[in-house]
Design a protein that fits this description.
Elements (H helix, E strand, L loop, with lengths): L16 H13 L12 E5 L2 E4 L4 E4 L2 H4 L8 H13 L11 H13 L7 E6 L2 H16 L3 E5 L8 H6 L16 E4 L13 H13 L1 H4 L6 E6 L2 E2 L5 E2 L2 H14 L2 E6 L13 H6 L6 E4 L10 E6 H4 L15 H16 L2 H22 L3 E7 L2 E8 L4 E2 L1 H13 L2 E2 L1 E3 L5 E4 L7 H18 L1
Parallel strand pairs: 3-16, 5-6, 5-7, 7-10, 10-11
Antiparallel strand pairs: 1-2, 2-3, 4-12, 8-9, 11-12, 13-14, 14-15, 14-18, 17-18
Helix pairs in contact: 3-12, 4-12, 7-9, 13-15, 14-15
Bound molecules: pyridoxal-5'-phosphate.
Length: 449
C-alpha cells in the first residue's frame, strides 16, 4: 500500500535510532531558539501521511502548520515544479518579466474576494512578508501612519509583524518596536467579559475598537485595521460575521482600509477558497487580503491582493524584492489552484468539518475538560479548560499531544495560553485516515484525564 493510503503505524520507540542521530546533529547546529514540537525526522510525505527516517508512519494533523492543504507530494504539483525548474528557477521581476508570475497573479485576481473592480497582485515569500507589505500598501495608499491589530493576533516574526503579533513570547528582547501599532480586543466570544453574549458581546468589542480613536490614534491617522478571519496561533477563534460587518462600516466611515490576513485561513481550509469570500457574500469584503502557506503546495510563496486603485497609490520602489514571485513557486501555485477548483477542496473541507465537529461536540458533552469546540470549515479548534471558571488547561493539551504522537497522530496546540488543539490536516485525508485520527485523539484524551 502506498504511503498516501496507509494508516498510522509506530514501529520503534520514539524517537527511533536514526531520528535520534539527526536530532543530535540538529541540537548542535540549529539555534535552540528555533523551537520544535516533535522529535520527528521526516523522510517522505504523501497526502496526509508522513514517514520518518526509522519507518514510522504518522497521520499529520498539522500539515506544516496549514501549508499542506493539497497534501504532501501531490503528483501534479511535483510535475509542475519539475517542468518549470527545467526552464528556469529564478528571474527577478524588477529586472526581467517571467510568465508564471503573470499567470498566477491573473488567476489569483480572479478568485480573490477583495473590494473594488480591477485587482492587482504582488508576491513575496512568507506570511510575515505578505502582512508587512499589506501594511506598507495601506500606508502608501492612504498616506496615514497608524494601524490597528488585535489581541490574540499572529502576523509573523519580522520587526513590524512581531509588533503586530499579540503574544510577546514571539518578541522577547527584540525591541524597540515600530510606533503606530494599536491593539483592540478580538471578539473571543467564549471568553467575552462578564459572560456577554450575542449582540451585547459584539457591541462591547466594537466599542472597544472605536475607543482607540479616542485613546490612541484619531481615525484620520489610521491606515488599516488588520485581522485574521479565524485567529490561528491565537486559538482558532472565528471572527463573528456581525463584528466583521461593523468593522467594515467603521472602515468605510473613516477612510480606513480593511485587511484580512488569510495566511492560515486561506486556500480551501475554511470551506471557501478564502474565508473572506464569506464576507464578500455578506457585503463586507476586505480592501486588501494576504495569503501564503497552502497556496503553493509546500513551495515558498505568499502575496497581497487589492484593487488597482489602491495599488496605484503606492509610491514606486517601496515594494518588491529579489525572490518575489519565484517562478517555480508560481508554477506550483497555479497547479494547486487548478486542483483545488477541479477537485472541490473547499467542499472537502466542509465534509471533513462535518465529521470532526460531530465527534468534537460529543466530546464536549462527555468530557468536562473540553470547554469549547469551534471553527470555520476545516479550521477547527478544541479549547481545554479546568473547572467551571474555564481556567485554561495547557497541561492536558501537552499530555494529549504527547500521547497521540506515540500512537502515530501529530497534533499541535494553539492559543494564548496553549490550551487549544488545532486541526490543520491536509484536506486530501481519506475517510478512513480521518476516522483513525479521531479515534487516536479520543483514546489519548481519555488516557490523559
Ligand atoms: C495568520 C498568520 N499570519 C502570518 C503568519 C506568518 O507566516 P510566516 O511564518 O510564513 O512568516 C502566520 C504563520 O503561522 C499566520 O498564521
Amino acid at each position: 500500500m502506498s504511503l498516501r493510503d496507509s494508516l498510522p503505524q509506530v514501529k520503534t520507540k520514539l524517537p527511533g535510532a536514526k531520528a535520534a542521530k539527526v536530532l543530535a546533529r540538529r541540537a548542535d547546529i540549529v539555534p535552540a531558539a528555533i523551537k520544535s514540537i516533535y522529535p520527528v525526522v521526516i523522510e517522505r510525505g504523501e497526502g496526509a501521511m508522513i514517514e520518518d527516517v526509522d519507518g514510522n508512519v504518522f497521520l499529520d494533523w498539522i500539515g506544516g502548520v496549514g501549508v499542506m492543504n493539497v497534501g504532501y507530494s501531490q503528483p501534479e504539483v511535483i510535475e509542475a515544479i519539475q517542468q518549470q525548474s527545467e526552464k528556469f528557477c529564478h528571474s527577478m521581476m524588477n529586472i526581467t518579466t517571467q510568465k508564471p508570475y503573470i499567470d498566477y497573479a491573473e488567476a489569483i485576481a480572479k478568485v480573490a474576494p477583495v473590494k473594488g473592480g480591477k485587482k492587482q497582485v504582488m508576491f513575496v515569500n512568507s506570511g510575515a512578508e505578505a502582512d508587512e507589505n499589506a501594511v506598507k500598501i495601506a500606508k502608501g495608499a492612504t498616506g496615514r501612519p497608524n494601524i490597528i491589530v488585535f489581541t490574540g493576533a499572529f502576523h509573523g516574526r519580522t520587526t513590524l509583524t512581531m509588533t503586530m503579533t499579540a503574544k510577546k513570547a514571539y518578541a522577547t528582547g527584540m525591541g524597540p518596536f515600530p510606533d503606530g501599532v494599536y491593539r483592540a480586543e478580538f471578539p473571543y466570544l467564549y471568553r467575552a467579559p462578564g459572560g456577554l453574549k450575542g449582540k451585547a458581546a459584539i457591541d462591547y468589542y466594537v466599542s472597544q475598537l472605536t475607543s482607540i480613536f479616542e485613546t490612541h490614534s484619531p481615525a484620520k491617522y489610521v491606515a488599516a485595521i488588520v485581522f485574521e478571519p479565524v485567529q490561528g496561533e491565537g486559538g482558532f477563534i472565528p471572527a463573528p460575521i456581525e463584528w466583521v460587518k461593523a468593522v467594515r462600516k467603521i472602515c468605510d466611515d473613516n477612510g480606513i482600509l480593511l485587511v484580512t490576513d488569510e495566511v492560515q485561513t486561506g486556500f480551501g481550509r475554511s470551506g471557501k477558497l478564502f474565508a473572506s469570500q464569506y464576507y464578500k457574500e455578506e457585503g463586507c469584503a476586505p480592501d486588501i487580503m494576504t495569503f501564503a502557506k497552502s497556496v503553493a503546495g509546500g513551495m515558498p510563496l505568499s502575496g497581497v491582493v487589492a484593487s488597482k486603485a489602491i495599488m496605484d497609490k503606492v509610491p514606486g520602489g517601496t515594494i518588491g524584492g529579489t525572490y518575489c514571485g519565484n517562478a517555480v513557486s508560481c508554477a506550483a501555485a497555479l497547479k494547486v489552484l487548478e486542483i483545488m477548483q477541479r477537485d472541490d477542496y473547499p467542499g472537502k473541507a466542509l465534509k471533513i468539518s462535518k465529521t470532526c465537529m460531530k465527534r468534537f461536540n460529543d466530546w464536549k458533552k462527555k468530557y468536562k475538560v473540553v470547554g469549547d469546540v469551534r471553527g470555520t470549515g476545516a479550521m477547527m479548534g478544541i479549547e481545554f479548560i479546568k473547572g467551571a471558571d474555564k481556567e485554561p488547561n495547557a497541561e492536558i493539551v501537552g499530555k494529549i499531544v504527547q500521547a497521540a504522537w506515540e500512537k502515530g497522530l501529530l497534533l499541535e496546540s494553539a492559543g494564548t495560553f496553549g490550551n487549544v488543539i488545532r486541526f490543520l490536516c491536509p484536506l486530501c485525508v481519506t475517510d478512513e485516515q480521518l476516522k483513525v485520527g479521531l479515534d487516536i485523539f479520543e483514546e489519548s484524551l481519555k488516557a490523559c484525564i
